[in-house]
Each structure stands twice: as C-alpha cells, then as structure tokens.
C-alpha cells in the first residue's frame, strides 16, 4: 500500500552549468540549506483559430515552448572556514556574476584612527574585498600599500593589534552571470524526484532581523525534468541524475537577530534598525522567443538594480540627523549589514553608495519610526554590492 510523502524528507542540491540549459554534474553538487523551494512550470499555449466544425477545444501541440519559475530561500549556516566554500556558493556565483575573491588571512600589526589597518605581512587584498577579525567582517575601501588597508567601518573593541585576520570569501558583481542545475530529492527513493536546468537568478534578496538569516533567489529555469517522465537526451543527460552521496544535515543556523548594521558616514554602529533588506535585480533576458531555439543560450542581464529598504526607530542622534540630510540632498551614503557574529557563521553585505529616499514618518505606535523604502545603490564599475563570508 502506498504512503504519503513527508515534506521534510527532502534535500536540494545546486551546481553551476558549463553551458546554460545543459545539466551540470549533480554528483559534485553542494547541498543547499533550503527553507522553501517553489518550482512552477509554465507552457506557452497559443490560441488556435482554425475552424474545427464545433465548439469543442481539440487541443494544442504538446511540444511548445516551456519555462519554469523558481523561487528558493536558503538559510545562512556555519561553514568550514578553513578550506571550504559556503553552501550558497553556486547560487551567489550565478546571481552576482563577478569574480570570487579569497583571502587566507593574516595578522594585524596596528590599527590607526579606527579605519587604517596595518598587517604584519603583505595582505594581497583589493578594494571591495571582505576582511574578517574577531568574528566581524569589514570591507576594504582603500589600499595605500601592500601591508596597509583602509576599511569601511571600524572593528569592535575586541579587535586589536596582534589579532588574527581569518579567511574570507568575497562575491562581486560582473557580467559573467551563470546558470544552475538544481536537484530536488525526496524519500522514499520510489517517490518522483525532480531537477531543473538552466536556472538563471533574476532577483536576490537578503533580509535582516528575521527568525534566522536567509537569502532568497528568484528566477526562471529552462527545463523541469523528473524521474518519472525522463527520456534520454533531456538537458544533455543519458539518465536521470541520482542523488549525490548522502551529506550530513546542515546545522549551525544563524539567528536573525545577531549581527550589526552600519548606515551612513559614521563610526558608530546603528542600533535602531527594525527591518532591513537588500534586493538585487538583474533584469534578465530569458531568450524565450528565438525561432528554433528550445535550449536557450548565454545569459544576458539588463541594467543592474540594487535596492535597499529600511525601517528605523527614530531618535535625536547626530547620525540620524546626518542620514536625513543626506536623503534630502541625494548624497550617497555607505550601508553595511553583518549577519552573524562568529568565525564560520558570519556574512556581510556592503553597498558603498546608496542614495537614500526621504523617510516616511510613522507615528501610529508608541514611538516614532522612519521608513525609507526603495533607496537605490549606484556605482561606477560593478561595485554597487559586495557579499563576503568569514
């Protein structure tokens, strides 16, 4: 007798594709700590206008164009900072499309003025790269010399001369947007397994102050295949890909309340953030309409759009006054969110130049709150956004 399938007995894996639309090697895929995955297939159905002799619908061809909308949310989990990459690695490479910069770390020789850090040996860092010390991440804003760097915001009091700079991986923006293969597997093995190929990430969303830190990815996949209806040749596969060798449960979730916010030209951490979110939109051309092309091709993005939403507790500090003035004058300010506070469980997102919208004042509660929505980040060369793990 058949039995129902538990929604919790489910594992998802992701791997980059060499050619968009042709399945990547799932056997090498890294497991993704998915908190939600929605795959909705859509077939383009043209309206028949021929005279069929009656009012009955006689059907349309079954082999027309098709695509699948994919919405995925995944938790931020701890990772082996020694020599591995985070579980979001393939997703971030696909969504951002730029270089992935790795720093082995080093030792702090001195810190001057809070922002100028000297290292005991040449650091090899570049502008925009993440620096991790004491479970905190900052980003390089300048490189005066091979053993000196200027960071965007000061480290906390626990980071001092002689302290260790630990390994980081930084994801940058670029034109090399990539496609993914996602494998979605269920227990028991007799259940229908599914796989999407050619998944291109159009939107990436990072929120702060939720239950747990997580990142959302939305886009479109070229093809949805499953173990029940699979035929050799689909997505370049000879057989439906089996699940990779079982990997350990992904644990070490990072609570959404742990982290830091830095907003504006300030040396003080922002302690009044109620809600924050960063959204990247690639404005992809999904290439659905080209004659004779059923497998797509390279991924092309439009003008990049990076937006910031904020909700703040209003106060009478100098930092809030300066933020308000910047929003009125349309002067860009830096914004950074750090997610987590321990080595191997920390990530950060940095927007060097954000033109803040004027705040909407909400006085319906016991205290005044500011809402600043749809502020847009700008840049001069793929530098609107950086994401680092440490």
Describe this structure in words.
By secondary structure, the protein is mostly beta strands. It has two domains: 10-42 and 65-99 and 174-242 and 250-290 and 308-389, no CATH class; 105-166, Elongation Factor Tu (Ef-tu), domain 3. It is 5% helix and 43% strand. The chain has helices spanning 89-96, 318-329; strands at residues 10-16, 30-32, 34-43, 66-75, 97-103, 106-112, 116-119, 130-133, 136-145, 148-151, 164-166, 168-173, 179-186, 194-208, 214-221, 223-226, 259-263, 273-281, 284-285, 300-301, 305-313, 333-339, 347-355, 360-362, 369-377, 386-389. The strands form three sheets. The chain has an 18-stranded antiparallel beta sheet that branches. The protein has a six-stranded antiparallel β-barrel with strand order 6-7-10-9-8-11. Strands 19-20 form a two-stranded antiparallel ribbon. Strand 24 (360-362) and strand 25 form a beta hairpin. The mean pLDDT is 92.
Task: Map the helices and strands.
Layout: E1 10-16, E2 30-32, E3 34-43, E4 66-75, H1 89-96, E5 97-103, E6 106-112, E7 116-119, E8 130-133, E9 136-145, E10 148-151, E11 164-166, E12 168-173, E13 179-186, E14 194-208, E15 214-221, E16 223-226, E17 259-263, E18 273-281, E19 284-285, E20 300-301, E21 305-313, H2 318-329, E22 333-339, E23 347-355, E24 360-362, E25 369-377, E26 386-389
Antiparallel strand pairs: 1-2, 1-13, 3-4, 4-15, 5-12, 6-7, 6-11, 7-10, 8-9, 8-11, 9-10, 12-26, 13-14, 14-15, 14-16, 14-18, 17-22, 18-21, 19-20, 21-25, 22-23, 23-25, 23-26, 24-25
């Amino acid at each position: 007798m058949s039995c129902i399938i538990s929604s919790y007995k489910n594992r998802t894996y992701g791997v980059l594709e060499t050619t968009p639309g042709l399945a990547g090697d799932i056997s090498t895929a890294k497991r993704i700590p998915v908190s939600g995955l929605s795959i909705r297939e859509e077939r383009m159905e043209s309206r028949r206008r021929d005279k069929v002799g009656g009012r009955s619908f006689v059907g349309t061809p079954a082999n027309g164009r098709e695509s699948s909308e994919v919405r995925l949310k995944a938790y931020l989990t701890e990772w082996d900072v020694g020599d591995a990459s985070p579980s979001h690695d393939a997703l971030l490479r696909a969504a951002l499309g730029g270089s992935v910069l790795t720093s082995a770390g080093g030792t702090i020789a001195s810190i001057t003025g809070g922002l100028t850090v000297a290292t005991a040996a040449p650091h090899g860092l570049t502008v925009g790269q993440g620096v991790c010390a004491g479970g905190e991440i900052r980003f390089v804003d300048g490189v005066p010399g091979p053993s000196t760097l200027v960071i965007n915001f000061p480290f906390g009091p626990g980071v001092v001369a002689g302290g260790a700079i630990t390994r980081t991986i930084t994801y940058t923006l670029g034109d090399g947007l990539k496609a993914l293969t996602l494998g979605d597997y269920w227990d028991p093995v007799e259940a229908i397994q599914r796989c999407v190929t050619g998944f291109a990430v159009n939107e990436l969303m990072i929120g702060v102050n939720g239950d747990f830190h997580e990142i959302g990815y939305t886009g479109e996949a070229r093809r949805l295949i499953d173990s029940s209806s699979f035929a050799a040749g689909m997505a370049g596969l000879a057989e439906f890909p089996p699940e990779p060798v079982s990997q350990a449960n992904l644990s070490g979730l990072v609570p959404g309340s742990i982290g830091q916010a830095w907003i504006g030209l300030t040396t003080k951490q922002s302690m009044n953030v109620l809600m924050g979110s960063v959204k990247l939109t690639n404005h992809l051309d999904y290439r659905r309409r080209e004659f004779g092309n059923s497998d797509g091709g390279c991924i092309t993005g439009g003008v990049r759009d990076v937006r910031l939403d904020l909700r703040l507790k209003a106060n009478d500090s100098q930092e809030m006054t300066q933020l308000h003035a910047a929003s009125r004058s349309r002067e860009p300010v830096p914004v950074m969110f750090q997610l987590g506070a321990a080595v191997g469980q920390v990530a950060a997102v940095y927007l060097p130049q954000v033109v803040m919208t004027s705040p909407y004042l909400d006085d319906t509660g016991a205290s005044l709150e500011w809402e600043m929505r749809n502020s847009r980040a700008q840049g001069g060369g793929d530098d609107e956004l950086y994401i680092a793990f440490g």
